[in-house]
């Protein structure tokens, strides 16, 4: 069995930053995104649609990095545990195979039944361990999504943005976006500050 937590990065990229829409309290009737950009590199609030680069966010958001390290450690520990149990079982089978010709028929039958039960128990243990790890991943991914989504909702309302889109290279519905609409750096700073405060 290979318990796979390396999928976390791909899954979290898709799940953690699904487009987060935040209705702004601005009463302007259907203001369209501004067609002209100022010389400033900051986003003009009139643009009201901005985006976050999810690739950058996931590589620089400390909570995600800590989460990935934690799940990788658990996965390696589970694999090592499973490997040790499998090797012990294989040694027991090999030992029986060496002795089977010298054993009475009833003892051979009893040993084979015991080994078969052990194999079934080992398979069940493997499945349970894999399911437990997948469930933990799903729970942690949901927490990650909630943290990012909650932060972006508050952030968008504060800044007056109508929508926050997510951009990921090679996996995005956005074919082009002006770089001045990219709020990734500011969002990463805010998320990391919030995470530091939570840890204290």
Automatic annotation (TrEMBL):
Residues 1-22 form the signal peptide. The keyword Endoplasmic reticulum does not apply. GO terms for biological process: protein stabilization. GO terms for molecular function: unfolded protein binding. GO terms for cellular component: cytosol. The keyword NAD does not apply. Residues 108-142 form a coiled coil. InterPro entries: Chaperone_Skp (IPR005632), Skp_dom_sf (IPR024930). Keywords: Coiled coil, Signal. Pfam families: OmpH. Belongs to the Skp family. This is Periplasmic chaperone for outer membrane proteins Skp. It comes from Pedobacter duraquae.
């Amino acid at each position: 069995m290979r318990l796979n937590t390396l999928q976390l990065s791909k899954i979290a990229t898709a799940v953690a930053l699904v487009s987060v829409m935040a209705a702004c309290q601005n009463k302007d009737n259907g203001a369209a995104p501004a067609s002209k950009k100022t010389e400033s590199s900051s986003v003009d609030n009139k643009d009201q649609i901005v985006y976050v680069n999810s690739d950058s966010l996931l590589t620089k958001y400390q909570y995600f990095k800590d989460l990935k390290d934690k799940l990788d450690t658990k996965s390696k520990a589970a694999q090592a545990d499973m490997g040790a149990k499998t090797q012990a079982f294989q040694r027991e089978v090999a030992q029986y195979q060496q002795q089977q010709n010298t054993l009475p028929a009833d003892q051979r039958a009893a040993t084979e039944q015991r080994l078969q039960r052990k194999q079934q128990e080992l398979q069940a243990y493997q499945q349970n361990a894999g399911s437990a790890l997948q469930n933990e991943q799903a729970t942690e991914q949901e927490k990650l999504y909630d943290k990012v989504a909650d932060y972006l909702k508050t952030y968008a309302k504060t800044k007056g943005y109508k929508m926050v889109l997510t951009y990921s290279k090679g996996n995005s519905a956005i074919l082009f976006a002006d770089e001045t609409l990219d709020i990734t750096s500011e969002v990463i700073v805010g998320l990391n500050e919030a995470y530091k405060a939570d840890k204290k």
